[in-house]
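Hi all, posting the design record for the shared folder.

TITLE: backbone redesign
STEP: 1 of 1
STRUCTURE INPUT:
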C-alpha cells in the first residue's frame, strides 16, 4: 500500500447517490438498451464506485491512461486478484467507451491497459456415468408428487439443453405477450425446443432431448397443483413454480439439485452450472462440433466454448493413460 493512501475495500457498497451522473447514465443505458441483468449492473456499480474512490475528487473526464494503470496497481497491491481486476478494468473501459466521446476526451484512458494474467481454470463437469446416476437417482425417479415431478423436469432440461440457471427460472410454459407480462423465454414441446433470452439480450433456440420431453410432460400435467388463482401474471405463466405458486427462485433450484446429488451419492457438490458444463462437454465428446456447442450455449465468443475442448482432451488423456500399454509412468 502506498503511503498516505487509505485502503480500499474490495467491494465498496457506495449508494447510488455517490456515483457521478455520467456513471448513472451509463448504467441506465445498459439496463434500458442493452438489457443487462441486475447482477451485472450491480457489479458494474461496485466497479465504478472503486473508480470514483480512486480518483479522490478528480473529475472523471480528467482521468488519463497513467491514472488507470496506477489505480490497478494500487488495488493489486491491496490484494485484489487478477480476475477481479480484469472485470473491473472491463467495466471502466466500457464506461469510458461510452463517456469519453460525450465528454470530449481525446481517448479512452482504459485502452491498452491490461490486468495481471490469471490461469483460466477448466469448468467442472460430471462424467457421463455421474450425470446418469444423478438423473436416474431413486429420490428423483420414485416420487410422483408435484415437487418431485418438477425437479425431474428441471434437471433433465438443464442437462438436455445446457441452460443457465437464470434462463431456466425465467421460462414460461408457453409464449405470453400481454400488458402485465411478456415472456422472455418459453418451452415449445411440439417443436421440442426451448427459447431463451441469454446474456446481452441474445435470443437462441436449443433442442430438448427425449428424456427431458417426457419429464416436462409429466410435470406440466401436475403443474396445476402448485398454481394459485390470484397469482401475478408473471407467476401464472411460469414453467416452474415453487411451493407457494410463485415462479421458482434460483436459490430453491440450487438447494434441490444439491440435495438430489447428495442423495445420489455423487462425490462432488453439484450446482446448476455443473449440468450446463456437463451438457457442453458430453455433446462435444460425441459430436466434435465446436460451433454447434457455441450456439447452443449462447457464447458470444468461441474462445469461451474452446475451454471444453481442453476438458475433453483431459478425458481422452486419462483414457489413454489407463489403456495404452506403454503410457504408464516409470516408478
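Okay, here is what came back for every position:
SEQUENCE:
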Amino acid at each position: 500500500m502506498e503511503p498516505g493512501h487509505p485502503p480500499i475495500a474490495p467491494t465498496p457498497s457506495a449508494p447510488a447517490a455517490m456515483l457521478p451522473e455520467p456513471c448513472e447514465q451509463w448504467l441506465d443505458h445498459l439496463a434500458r438498451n442493452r438489457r443487462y441483468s441486475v447482477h451485472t449492473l450491480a457489479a458494474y456499480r461496485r466497479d465504478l464506485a472503486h473508480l470514483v474512490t480512486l480518483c479522490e475528487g478528480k473529475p472523471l473526464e480528467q482521468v488519463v491512461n497513467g491514472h488507470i494503470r496506477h489505480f490497478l496497481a494500487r488495488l493489486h497491491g491491496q490484494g485484489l486478484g487478477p480476475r477481479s481486476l480484469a472485470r473491473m478494468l472491463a467495466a471502466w473501459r466500457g464506461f469510458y467507451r461510452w463517456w469519453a466521446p460525450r465528454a470530449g476526451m481525446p481517448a479512452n484512458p482504459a485502452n491498452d491497459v491490461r490486468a495481471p494474467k490469471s490461469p483460466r481454470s477448466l469448468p467442472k463437469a460430471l462424467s457421463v456415468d455421474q450425470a446418469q446416476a444423478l438423473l436416474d437417482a431413486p429420490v428423483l425417479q420414485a416420487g410422483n408428487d408435484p415437487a418431485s415431478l418438477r425437479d425431474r423436469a428441471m434437471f433433465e432440461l438443464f442437462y438436455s439443453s445446457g441452460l443457465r440457471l437464470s434462463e431456466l427460472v425465467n421460462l414460461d410454459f408457453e409464449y405470453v405477450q400481454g400488458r402485465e407480462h411478456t415472456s422472455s423465454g418459453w418451452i415449445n414441446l411440439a417443436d421440442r425446443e426451448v427459447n431463451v433470452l441469454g446474456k446481452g439480450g441474445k435470443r437462441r433456440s436449443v433442442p430438448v432431448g427425449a428424456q427431458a420431453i417426457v419429464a416436462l410432460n409429466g410435470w406440466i400435467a401436475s403443474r396445476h397443483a402448485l398454481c394459485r388463482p390470484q397469482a401475478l401474471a408473471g407467476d401464472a405463466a411460469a414453467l416452474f413454480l415453487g411451493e407457494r405458486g410463485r415462479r421458482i427462485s434460483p436459490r430453491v433450484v440450487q438447494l434441490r439439485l444439491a440435495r438430489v446429488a447428495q442423495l445420489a451419492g455423487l462425490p462432488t457438490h453439484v450446482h446448476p452450472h455443473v449440468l450446463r458444463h456437463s451438457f457442453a462437454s458430453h455433446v462435444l465428446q460425441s459430436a466434435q462440433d465446436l460451433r454447434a456447442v457455441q450456439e447452443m450455449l449462447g457464447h458470444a465468443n468461441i474462445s469461451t466454448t474452446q475451454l471444453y475442448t481442453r476438458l475433453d482432451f483431459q478425458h481422452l488423456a486419462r483414457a489413454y493413460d489407463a489403456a495404452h500399454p506403454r503410457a504408464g509412468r516409470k516408478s
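COMMENT: The two ends are 48 Å apart (CA to CA).
Let me know if anyone wants the other runs.
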